[in-house]
Design a protein that fits this description.
The longest helix is centred in the N-terminal third of the chain and has 66 residues. The chain has four domains: 40 residues; 98 residues, PAS domain (Beta-Lactamase, 2-Layer Sandwich); 114 residues; 165 residues, Histidine kinase-like ATPase, C-terminal domain (Heat Shock Protein 90, 2-Layer Sandwich). The protein is elongated, with a radius of gyration of 46 Å. The strands form three sheets. A five-stranded antiparallel beta sheet has the order 2-1-5-4-3, with helices on both faces. The protein has a five-stranded mixed beta sheet with strand order 7-9-10-12-11. It is 54% helix and 19% strand. The protein is α+β, with helices and mostly antiparallel strands. It comes from Hirschia litorea.
Length: 458
């Protein structure tokens, strides 16, 4: 018995086959797309992997290059964590502190320096103030015995997790300190040479100043010697019981009334002359003495009077002195010899400026001292011929001078500038008007607080 397929069954079979074919085509297309996507992803991953390899190679090359640079630099470099423990160091740091690499494990960076508590306080103060860069000088310790001066710079790094790390950059400044000591010694010798040069220039005038009182002291001594002989002759007559007429005649001959009146005056005048000579000699001694190292409390008014004594013969023929010295002026920590030298330069320059352009009348040199806001001020002004603007800009340059050849070395104002600005942290300024005169203003701090010098580690 055979079954017969009608048209409906045939149509259903055809639809099933078409559905299967469509499904197969979709699956094939999906598979091809997946394979293409997988191929693209594989290619991308391969390219990314190759790129990462190149980045890794570059990073490794940079790391090796950085390590090479760090190990060959003469500066010691330490990487320090937030607990101040040394994490990494370069070769120079190890050699600088005499350390092996194993010595750095759990080493606190503060143990490498003297006065570590002061350094720690300084770092905390700077960090609290928001400063990321810290600089100071300290004494570093060698591993074992010995120490060396070091200049330290600290830069802070904030990591992604918020922790703070530090890079310590350390310079051994032993050679610089030695060079600075030599430079200071040379400056001291130059200053002393300039001082003696100025004293040599003043020598003839000082000799004249001493010669005048010495002359009248000598004249008075001769007068007293002759008078003493007359008095002794009269006393011998009394001792020999001479007659009244003989004594009266000798008294009139010796002019005893005149002697009794003149002898006390001659003695008083001689004592004043000797005091004047002693004052000049003392002033010269103070001026020419090299002076002690460091600073001592000094009365500026006394220094000014000493300087005027030494320089008197330089200014007395060309100018009169106007003094306006503030009473009860605070004593100032300074080098007396240095300040004395500055004043000599200013007063002699003022006298030379007046002599250069004065008429018959004497000029005027005014010296004033004052105190305000923690500063002592000395003003030295003159009625000389002043200076043009281009000279004012160069007046403190070494070896610059407006004087004729042989009359000036150009070192006076340059040395004065160095003494005031560098050695005493003060100011020296000049106001000058051509044809009317000049005024030099010297400002000196009474204490380190005046100039804001808080030297935590010195």
């Amino acid at each position: 018995m055979h079954s017969v397929l009608n048209n409906s069954d045939l149509n259903s079979a055809e639809l099933s086959i078409e559905t299967l074919i469509a499904r197969l085509q979709r699956e094939k297309s999906a598979r091809e797309q997946a394979e293409e996507l997988l191929e693209n992803k594989s290619r991308s991953l391969y390219q990314a992997n190759e790129a990462l390899k190149k980045v890794a190679e570059n990073l490794e090359g940079q790391r090796q290059q950085l390590n090479t640079i760090l190990d060959h630099t003469v500066t010691g470099i330490l990487l320090v964590n937030d607990r101040l423990n040394v994490v990494q160091s370069n070769k120079s740091a190890n050699e600088m502190f005499g350390l092996m690499q194993d010595d750095l494990l759990d080493l606190n960076v503060l143990d490498l320096f003297e006065r570590s508590k002061a350094i720690e306080r300084l770092i905390n103060i700077k960090l609290k103030s928001g400063s990321d860069d810290i600089q100071f000088e300290a004494v570093a310790r060698l591993n074992g015995e010995g120490a060396f001066p070091a200049e330290v710079g600290i830069s802070t790094i904030v990591k992604p997790d918020g922790r703070r790390a530090m890079v310590w950059i350390i310079h051994d400044i032993t050679r610089r300190r030695r060079d600075e000591a030599k430079r200071k010694e040379l400056e001291k010798e130059l200053s002393q040479a300039q001082k003696l040069e100025a004293l040599g220039t003043l020598a003839s005038g000082v000799a004249h100043e001493i010669n005048t009182p010495i002359q009248y002291v000598g004249d008075n001594m001769r007068f007293l010697g002759e008078s003493l002989q007359e008095i002794v002759s009269l006393l011998e007559l009394f001792q020999n019981n001479a007659g009244a007429e003989q004594i009266r005649s000798k008294t009139e001959e010796a002019d005893i009334d005149f002697l009794l009146e003149e002898i006390p005056q001659a003695i008083e005048q001689s004592l004043k002359g000797l005091e004047q000579v002693a004052g000049i000699v003392k002033a010269i001694k103070e001026f020419s003495h090299p002076g002690q190292e460091g600073h001592a409390n000094v009365d500026l008014n006394e220094v000014i009077n000493t300087t005027l004594t030494v320089t008197r013969n330089q200014w007395k023929y060309v100018a009169e002195i106007d003094l306006e010295l503030e009473e009860n002026l605070s004593k100032i920590p300074c080098n007396k010899g240095d300040i004395n030298q500055v004043l000599v330069n200013l007063i002699v320059n003022a006298a030379d400026a007046i002599a250069e352009c004065r008429n018959k009348d004497l000029g005027r040199i005014a010296i004033k001292t004052s105190e305000a806001d923690g500063w002592l001020t000395i003003e030295v002004s003159d009625t000389g011929c002043g200076m043009p603007k281009d000279i004012q800009d160069r007046m403190f340059d070494p070896f610059f001078t407006t004087k004729d050849v042989g009359k000036g070395t150009g070192q006076g104002l340059a040395i004065s500038y160095n003494i005031i600005r560098t050695k005493h942290k003060g100011e020296i300024l000049c106001e000058s008007q051509q044809g009317k005169g000049s005024r030099f203003i010297v400002k000196l701090p009474i204490s380190p607080d005046t100039i804001g010098q808080l030297e935590v580690l010195r």
